[in-house]
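Hi Y.,

Following your request, here is the sequence exactly as I used it, all 145 residues.
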Amino acid sequence: MRRRGNEHGAHAPYPRTARLNQVLREVVADALERLTDIDERLRLVTVTGVDIASDLSHAEVYLSALDEQTAEALEELRPGLQQSIGRQVRMKRTPRLHFAADPAVAHGMRVEEILRRMHEGHARREEDGHDDGPASGPKSAGPGA
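Below is the corresponding structure, written out as tokens. Let me know if you'd prefer a different format.
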């Protein structure tokens, strides 16, 4: 049986796995929120998703940003985060957490940058009086009019 792809490029999980992904995302996000008071390296980190393996042995935790300092902090705190999961979620085994920057966030930022540059270029052309865009040209009724 084939499964559809999800937002992180992996296969869509079975319903149980999807529920676990959501529960793990909430548990890890809550734990990280509490830890921001203790460790400033986690201040601007948002958990965007979790993708747990079908055998529940490990889970990829996707974050809005993951620089070197944040990665170090998360690796130091990983055992405690896994203990949090073990206490709050009834599972046969607690998955080993792996952390990664969410590629969707990077792609979104890239799209925003491209749109911003296009907008700035359009504004510059308007200021210079060289706007050749469709809105400034003569309107035609199209072929056969």
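The CA atoms of residues 10 and 91 lie 22 Å apart.

Thanks again,
Q.
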